[in-house]
Structures are given as C-alpha cells and as structure tokens.
Design goal:
Blueprint: H1 2-47, E1 49-51, E2 53-55, E3 58-73, E4 76-80, E5 85-90, E6 97-98, E7 103-107, H2 110-140, H3 145-171, E8 173-175, E9 180-185, E10 192-193, E11 198-204, E12 208-215, E13 227-232, E14 235-247, E15 257-263, E16 276-293, E17 298-300, E18 303-311, E19 317-330, E20 333-338, E21 345-347, E22 360-362
Parallel strand pairs: 1-22
Antiparallel strand pairs: 2-21, 3-12, 3-16, 4-11, 5-7, 5-10, 6-9, 7-8, 9-11, 12-15, 13-14, 13-16, 14-15, 16-20, 17-18, 18-19, 19-20
Helix pairs in contact: 2-3
C-alpha cells in the first residue's frame, strides 16, 4: 500500500508538470501568433503610402525676366539763355503747365532796343547811298565800280546786323518750345545771365516712356513689338500692358545691357519722370508641352525621376518610378521633355516617401490638368 501510494503521488506530480508546460506552450504560441499578425499588419501599413495625383496634360510654358526701368519723357530739356542781360520777370511758376510758344522768362531788352534803332538808321542811310550810286553808275556811267561795290557791301552788312539784333530781341523772351511743365527755374529776377546760362528745366507733358536695360543674354529674344507687363511700386495692383517701341542694336559695355523703351499710355500722365517701374518681359514660350512642378522631381545617381500611379500584377495600386529628362524651367515649373506622357497620373502629395513598386493608396485624386500659371 505504501508503494502504490508513492507511485500514485509521483505520477500525479508528473501529470501536473506536463499540464503546466502544455499551458505555457499554448499561451506562448497564441502570443507569438498575435505578435506576428500585428507585425504583418504594421508592415502592410508602412508599405502603403497615402497619395494624391494629378493628370499630366500638354499646356503652354512661358518664362519671363523682370527688369527695372525709369519713367522718362521724350521732351525733358534744360533751356539756356541765348543773350546777355538781366532777368526782369518770370511768367510761369514752377509746376505750372505751359503751352508751346508761351513766354516763361523775360530778359531786359532796353539796350537791344536802342541798338536796333541805331542799326535801323545806319541801314537806311547805307541803303540810300547804295541806291544813289547804283543809279548814277548804271544809268549815267558816273563814278567808279569800286565805289558802287563798297556802297553795296556797306548796305548788306548794316542790314545783316539789323536782322541779327532782331533775333537777339526775340530771344530776350524765353519761350516754351513744346507743351510741358516748368520743373525748375535756375535764375531769379534781377540776376544777370549770358549766352549758355541754364535758366529753366521744362518737361514735356504729352509723351512719356519707360526706359530700361536688359541683360545682353536676352538680346536674341527681346525685340521691338514684344508685349510687356508694367507696374509701379507705388501702385502694385495697377498693372499696365505695354509694347516695346525701341530695342537698341548695341550693348552697353559698362553693364552689358541693351536699352529698351516702352511707350506709356497717354492717359497715364499721373506718373512722374524718374519714377521706378517694374517690367516683366517674356523670354520664352512653348505650346503643347508637359509642365510639372519641380517639387515632384527627385534627383538620383542615374538622373531625375518622378513617380506615377500604376498597378502591379495583383492589380494593386503602386508607385512607378519614371526617369525623366528636364527642359527649360521658370520659377517652380519645369518642362518634362521625355519620361512622361499625356494622361499619366503624376503622384504629388506623398511622392517624397516613395520607392519604385511601393504600395500606395490614392486619396482625393484630382483629375485637373497639371499646369502652373
């Protein structure tokens, strides 16, 4: 009886130990299965990237260059005195508009008036003497030829001096040569002036232009007749459309630019001379090309690549890596010369996390044309 009891007790301990081991193995197996399943799901989530796409379609590509110009007028001159004398009056104030032929400044002409009176008398005497000698010499044959010629030349010289003094008298009234605005006066009433002394700056009010220098590398693409956009720092929202009226044929050796001129609309006369103007010039335009944003182009050792939406053999959405050749670029837009075709679904948002063949999940797919304005 004692032996049987020992055997039974020992057997029961072995059964208990085996049961405990079986439970541990079962629990371990269950735990391992759950971890493996969780890991598989996590790997599946990592491999599938949420993306958005845009349909690639041909569009127009344009590139531009911006230059800075200044407002000028074709009539912006400094008027100088042509005779000597004292300034006696200003007939137009600074900032006042004047018409062509209107007197702006008057110079004292009293001495010139006296000189004119004297020359008129001398000329009249010389003329009378010449006509008398001419008559007796030609009709009566009295007198010598030299006396006749001396009288003739004396009359002509006196008459020429008289005409010259008349011109000087007219020049004592400094007049506007065109319609414009008196910008500034350099002399005051009572000051003495002489020929060549600047007296007034006159700016024409009819024709305004914008002049600018364009880098020499654009000499073969910027020409007369090209359309341009113009805006001013003081009126950024007011963009004007203009046309290049002149493009220089020479390059400035100092700054390697060539001059262009753009006519301002006549109604835009509120702009002032020497105002700064921003000018946008189109340097290139291509029709029917594929244009995408350069943020979706990635550099690799073998060149540049983009990612498009495709399907694997199982019909699942994947990212397909495409090697592309780039063309001209402007700001963030770049031309794709080859590697993409019209209708391809370019992966945009999420493309930075992709590799070739990676599973993707399209979200909010956009079918709008891929073009930047």
């Amino acid at each position: 009886m004692k032996l049987t009891t020992k055997i039974t007790t020992h057997h029961m301990k072995k059964v208990s130990l085996f049961a405990s081991l079986l439970v541990f193995i079962t629990l371990g197996a269950c735990s391992g299965g759950e971890e493996a399943q969780t890991q598989t799901e996590e790997e599946e989530l990592v491999k599938s990237v949420n993306i958005t796409t845009k349909t690639v379609q041909p569009t127009t590509f344009s590139s531009y260059v911006r230059v800075v110009g200044t407002v000028e007028t074709s009539n912006d001159i400094m008027i100088s005195a042509e005779v000597s004398g004292r300034v006696v009056s200003h007939n137009a104030k600074e900032g006042e508009a004047v018409r062509k032929g209107q007197t702006i400044i008057k110079i004292d002409d009293s001495k010139l008036v006296q000189e004119k009176t004297r020359l008129e008398a001398v000329t009249a005497q010389a003329k009378e003497n010449f006509e008398r000698l001419k008559k007796v010499y030609e009709e009566d044959g009295i007198g010598s030829e030299i006396d006749y010629l001396n009288a003739k030349y004396a009359f002509e010289q006196s008459n020429s001096s008289l005409e010259s003094i008349k011109v000087d008298l007219a020049n004592t009234s400094i007049k506007a040569p065109f319609n414009g605005t008196v910008e500034s006066k350099m002399v005051e009433v009572g000051e003495m002036v002489s020929p060549g002394t600047p007296v007034v700056r006159l700016i024409g009010s009819d024709d305004y232009i914008i002049s600018a220098g364009v880098p020499a590398r654009y000499a073969d693409v910027i020409t007369s007749g090209d359309a341009v956009d113009i805006w001013f720092d003081t009126q950024a929202s007011d963009t004007l459309n203009g046309t290049i009226s002149f493009a220089a044929s020479s390059i400035n050796p100092q700054n390697r630019t060539f001059r262009i001129e753009i006519d301002l609309p006549k109604k835009e006369n509120q702009y002032k001379v020497d105002m700064i103007a921003n000018i946008r010039l189109r340097t290139n335009q291509q029709e029917g090309v594929l244009v995408i944003s350069e943020e979706f182009v990635y550099s690799k050792e073998e060149g540049y690549v983009v990612y498009v939406l495709a399907q694997n053999q199982a019909g699942q959405a994947v990212a397909e890596e495409r090697k592309v050749n780039l063309g001209l670029a402007y700001k963030t837009d770049v031309i794709i010369e080859n590697g993409l075709q019209a209708g391809d679904q370019l992966i945009t948002l999420g493309s930075a996390f992709l590799d070739d063949g990676m599973r993707v999940t399209p979200k909010n797919q956009q079918d709008s044309n891929l073009a930047s304005n």
